[in-house]
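Q: I'm building a small set of examples for a reading group on sequence design. Run inverse folding on the following structure and report the sequence directly after it, with nothing in between.
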């Protein structure tokens, strides 16, 4: 079984859907941001403040590579898989699913979250521009694109079906 990486903009539901999906697929669930916090002993805002966003991104790369190949569902951070290099690391032993949700939905979920440095340090317009730019990269770097603007259980079943189809295609060499 390949690792299933979930990507998408902040607030698209990666962690919430990921937990439900992991249960449905009888797999371990790992939230990459929480994993980084546990491994580093610092919050994400502390990592950004003490080191830099670039340092945080290097930790994402390190841990994507470390976790690839596990029988797990991994919710990545919003910026983790916009990098073609990180997507290549994830694809070594995994499949990447992009959870496609409208910007306004994401923004309503994240607008007051002080644990998100990019949200706290950018205007709504800046975040919408970032969303638009990242959306194209998520699509380019993903194996599966899922309309995730639906109830959690429905989205989880959609992802599981698309994951199984992707595995079947990989086994056939398509």
């Amino acid at each position: 079984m390949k690792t299933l990486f979930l990507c998408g903009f902040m607030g698209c539901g990666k962690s919430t859907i990921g937990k439900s999906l992991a249960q449905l697929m009888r797999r371990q669930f790992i939230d990459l941001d929480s994993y980084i916090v546990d491994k580093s002993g610092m919050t994400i805002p502390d990592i950004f403040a003490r080191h830099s966003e670039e340092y945080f991104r290097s930790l994402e790369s390190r841990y994507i590579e470390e976790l690839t190949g596990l029988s797990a569902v991994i919710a990545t951070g919003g910026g983790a898989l916009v990098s073609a290099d990180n997507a290549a690391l994830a694809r070594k032993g995994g499949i990447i699913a992009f959870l496609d949700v409208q910007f306004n939905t994401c923004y309503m979920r994240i607008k007051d979250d002080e644990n998100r440095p990019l949200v706290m340090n950018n205007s709504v317009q800046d975040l919408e521009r970032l969303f638009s730019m990242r959306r194209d990269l998520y699509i380019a770097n993903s194996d599966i694109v899922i309309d995730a603007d639906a109830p959690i259980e429905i989205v989880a079943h959609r992802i599981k079906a698309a994951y199984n189809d992707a595995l079947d295609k990989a086994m056939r060499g398509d």
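The two ends are 18 Å apart (CA to CA).
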